[in-house]
Amino acid sequence: MDIIGTILWPLKWAVELILVAFHALFTFVGMNPAAGLTWVLSIVGLVLVVRALLIPLFVKQIKNQRKMMEVAPQLKKIQDKYKGKRDQMSREAMSRETMALYKNTGTNPMGSCLPLLVQMPIFFALFSVLREAAGGKRGVGPLNQELASLFGDASLFDVAPLHSSFQDAMNATPPAVGVMVIAAVMVVLMTSSQFFTQLQIMSKNISEETKASPMFKQQRILLYLLPFVFLFSGFAFPLGVMFYWLVSNIWTMVQQFIIIRNMPMPGTEAAREREARLARKGKLDKLAKGDDTIVVEEKKPAQRQQPVGKNRAKKLAQQGKQVPQAKEQNKPGSTPGPRDSKGKK
């Protein structure tokens, strides 16, 4: 029994549905159903739908990261408490206290990986759909035999079949130079966009305390090593999958830029830059709880005028200054009566 195929079956069906729907839309507006550009735009539409559906998970990821920063000092206290204790009882006690802290604060250390974990099966489903369609094999859902044949024969600029990869083009006789050029450009763009996305996170949206940790140093090493991994593995992907990956990377890069600019992590360089921008605009940003509430400075109430005595009033009148008039406070139920020349009732 094919367990992976069974797990991917509903995802493949959904991928085919979205892909075929966009293909039908572009065909309806007059594009050639067999053209490679029509299928590339259908793949772009698939990316936009998938990433839009993942926005709630991304928002949840941001909130979880903020909560993890808030509980970091308490987590460090637990770790310091059991530092150097390697016996079984101490490890179990440390694990219990850590899990209790996560439960009480509503944090989840795996929450930051949720969008990636959800997106990876979709990527594998797309890879499987495009591979099968490239061979003219119908899909498990709306991608029928006719559409699979159209995709299998589709070429970008009439020189680069979407089912081909750099590796396939290099092993062909003669080598398909057009496919190799387009695939090489795609791999460079994919790797560069992914590197820039991670670089802007690690350079601007990480606090100084986190940068001093050994884990950050390991992540920084991976930042420069992973591009080489994707650089070589990308040459084995079909052009159709590479288009999906590139558009998805561009979405992530723009999304991260917007989040870092408008909702940075507290205590980071991005947060200080945001405060400076708000200060230049005359706004005060309330970052105590990590929200985006703008505090508007309230006007102070006017001071109550103190009553002026007769002698001081006479001096002010002689100097040509206005005598401040105090409002008369009448008791409830009382009515002002007539006054004599001395100001008495």
Walk me through what this model shows:
The chain is mainly alpha-helical and 345 residues long. The protein has a two-stranded antiparallel ribbon. A two-stranded antiparallel sheet has the order 3-4. Helix 1 crosses helix 5. The chain is extended, with a radius of gyration of 34 Å. The C terminus is likely disordered.
Write the SSE topology.
Layout: H1 3-28, H2 36-53, H3 55-81, H4 88-105, H5 114-134, H6 145-153, E1 155-156, E2 160-161, H7 166-171, H8 177-204, H9 208-211, H10 214-233, H11 239-262, H12 269-280, E3 284-285, E4 294-295, H13 310-318
Antiparallel strand pairs: 1-2, 3-4
Strand ordering within the main sheet:
1-2
Percent strand equals under 5%
Cα-based radius of gyration, to the nearest Å:
34 Å
Query: How many β-strand runs?
Result: 4
Q: What oligomeric state best describes the polypeptide chains here? A: single chain
Biggest sheet layout: 2 strands, antiparallel
Order of helices and strands: HHHHHHEEHHHHHHEEH
The residue ranges in which pLDDT falls below 50 over 5 or more consecutive positions are 285-302, 326-335, 337-345
Structural class of the secondary structure composition?
mainly alpha
| Number of H/I helices | 13
Estimated helix fraction: 55-70%
* Gross geometry: extended
What key phrases describe this protein's structure?
two-stranded antiparallel ribbon, 345 residues, extended, 4 strands, mainly alpha, 13 helices
